[in-house]
Fold this protein.
Amino acid sequence: MDMKFLVVTDIHGKQSATEWINFVIKENHVDCVLALGDISNFGPDDVAANILDSIDSDVYAIPGNCDPHSIPAVIAKHGTDMHGKSTEIDGIYVAGLGGSNPTIFDTPFELSEDDIYNKLKGISKKGMILMVHAPPYGINDTIPSGLHVGSTSIMKIVREFKPLLVLSGHIHEAIGCVKEDGITFVNPGPAKDGYSAIVDIENDTVSVKMLSPLD
């Protein structure tokens, strides 16, 4: 089992981001792209469709809190929709959930903590890759004021199922790769600003290369 993923999130409708995304795909010989939401910036659907179609790779994607509820159907037509779903990618079990826990901004795709937990519980497995837009509470979720704003339900799922890898976005300032309790947590940073991450998985060993606009 050896897979190389390009992880992107928070494109927010910036079509030009696909140019450097495709460069990274080619330079790093990635197997597929994992997109963690906010593909559009409050819509419209054709913006997300054009971005997904412009990426020169298979794309597995979830919506973000700034995507309308129509985006999972758009993803299904132009890639693989992972919202509330699971799949195997070359033998690696992947589960996904888009949207976010409630925010102060009342964005389009927010879910209650109970809904997040219930949707993830049914598709989660030990050792999975977990694709979520919102981060788990306490990791890669700190806003400039110092507050943690991640999802308590996602963290509960993490504690119960011990994923191999947790991928999240949403908090643009909380870029990072953290290893804790045998779990690797990655927020690649907003793709609209040129950030991404390359994740290699070989025999349950995870290695991460964080990419910034200067790389």
User: Anything to note?
Assistant: The chain has one domain: 2-211. The first strand starts at residue 2 and ends at 8. Residues 2-211 form a domain with the Purple Acid Phosphatase; chain A, domain 2 fold (CATH 3.60.21.10). The two ends are 28 Å apart (CA to CA).
